[in-house]
Structures are given as structure tokens and as C-alpha cells.
Amino acid sequence: MTIHHMSGAGNRFVVIDNRVEHLDLTRLHALAPALCDRRHLHLPPAEGLLVLQDVMPGGFNGEFLNPDGSHGAMCGNGGRCIVRFALDNGAETNADDVIDFTLSGEGYSATLSGNDMVTLEFPAPKEVRQLAPGELHGISVPSVYVNVNSDHIVLYGPDLGIAFEHLRTSDLDTIALPFRHHPAFARGVNVNVYAVDEDGTIHVRTFERGVEAETGACGTGALSTTIAAWLSERSSPTARVIPPSRRPLFVTIHEDHGDIRSLDLTGDAIYDHAPTLHH
């Protein structure tokens, strides 16, 4: 089996072309942990498995699985990587230079620009809730819940007593775990902590569900955090987002009188290692 290695804004993925491998979803679930554990290659672990299922005129279908084999959520950085992989392997854009695709059953569209940059268009969030202190049992700080086909809690660093200069050194695991498995969220949540610098750039760290650790970047986390910052009037609808990898993401909220209509996520999608064989 040929394994491709990609990275979106520092979020690391392994990719397979299932038109060649013909693996069903049960087998993919079982394989994901081994494929993402790249220690035998002397590479850091991958943070997800991307699967190109089939290609049709103007589009393709794909799947995303977490390293633990769980399935069903959207991955923004992975979405950009599978778009580039599909375009490099037979997929084509339509007459408007847009490619439509599904990832884990949900539909999206994307455009490819120069310098390895890909823009994904997301629909409006399925749910956004601003949660006051105490509204979640046992939680004494404000938070925002956002569902962009991936569940996120967003926390503002200063609300936690974390000064901007200490954001990157704070104990994210300790902050995240009370939310990660909170009974209010049946599927569990990803947890984001952010701060905004003086020029309006958002700096964010994300503890990811299914990885069960902080990742180098999280695309849906960048979207969710920008939404939370915009609702709190800490950000404009267009934001530059800096994850721990330092490879920037760019988010645009398309809104009409405060109602979110759609979202754009732009960032890089690159190959970060030569293909390898898995036996």
C-alpha cells in the first residue's frame, strides 16, 4: 500500500488513494492507528488519515479518520490536503476553477491558488452558543461552543488568567480535559484557547479530539476561534490565525447583519515526505 505524507498549516496527515487499495470503511478504521504511527519511518505521528475514494467531473469523494480510527467529523487542514492530492491525481476543477467534494459525507467546495495555498468554503455553522460562567456544570469561565461539522469549545486566554505572552507555555492539557469529555457534549469536543495581539492577529492552541493531544494546527479550530473572537468583538470578520506551527491560516466570515452565511478557510497544503510503502 502506498502512503502519501502531507501537511496543512503544520497539521500532519497520511493519505491513501482508495481507487487503488479498495479498502472498506471497517478496514480503514482498523488501519488508521498503524498508518498514523510513523515511528518506524522516524517521522512524527500523523494527526489523521485522508482517503481519496473516487473522482468524478468537477469533484471527488473522500474520508477523514482520526488517529484512533474514529470517523465522521470535518477536518479543515485535512480538507485542503485531500483537495490538493485529488487534483494531483486525476481530479479536475469545473469551469469556474472550483472543485466540489465530500469529506465524511458532508459537501464542500475549494479553489487552488499559487504557493501551495488552498481555500475551502464551509457552510454556516450548524450551531453557535455563547456559554456564561456556570452554564456548563463545573465550569466557572465563559466559553463559546461552535459546530462547523466538528465540535469546538473556544476559550479566551485572559478569561483563564493567561496573559498573551504566556499563551504558548500554559498547560493546555489541564485546561482542555474538563471540557473534552464534559457530559454536555455527547460526542466530546475539541478545545481551543486563544489570544489576540495588538494588530488583530489571533493566536490559538487546540487540543484535538481523536488525537487526544495538542496539534500543530487545527483548521476547524481556526474557524471556530475566529467566530468566537468576532462575536466578542475582538476580531474582524477577516482574520489571520497563527497556530503553534506558525504557518498562518486565513479565515473569512461571510455575514449579513450578524448572521453567518458561509466561511472561508485558506492555508497551505504541502507534501512533507516522499511516499512510503505499508505492508
List keywords for this structure.
single chain; 279 residues; alpha+beta; Diaminopimelate Epimerase, Chain A, domain 1; 2 domains; 17-stranded mixed sheet; 5 helices; globular
Topology:
Blueprint: E1 2-8, E2 11-17, H1 18-21, H2 25-36, E3 49-56, E4 59-65, H3 76-88, E5 99-103, E6 106-112, E7 117-123, E8 127-131, E9 143-147, E10 151-156, H4 172-180, E11 190-196, E12 202-208, E13 213-214, H5 219-231, E14 238-242, E15 249-256, E16 259-268, E17 270-277
Parallel strand pairs: 2-3, 4-5, 10-11, 12-14
Antiparallel strand pairs: 1-2, 1-17, 3-4, 5-6, 6-7, 7-16, 8-9, 9-10, 11-12, 12-13, 14-15, 15-16
InterPro entries: DAP_epimerase_AS, DAP_epimerase_DapF
GO molecular function: diaminopimelate epimerase activity
Pathway: Amino-acid biosynthesis; L-lysine biosynthesis via DAP pathway; DL-2,6-diaminopimelate from LL-2,6-diaminopimelate: step 1/1
Describe this structure in a few short sentences:
18% of the residues lie in helices and 40% in strands. It is built from five helices and 17 strands.
Q: What features would you describe in this structure?
A:
Strand 5 and strand 6 form a beta hairpin. This protein starts with a strand and ends with a strand. Helix content is 18%, strand content 40%. The protein folds into 2 domains: 123 residues, Roll (Diaminopimelate Epimerase, Chain A, domain 1), CATH 3.10.310; 142 residues, Diaminopimelate Epimerase, Chain A, domain 1 (Roll), CATH 3.10.310. The protein is α+β, with helices and mostly antiparallel strands and 279 residues long. It contains 5 helices and 17 strands. The model has no long low-confidence stretch (mean pLDDT 96). The chain has a 17-stranded mixed beta sheet that branches.
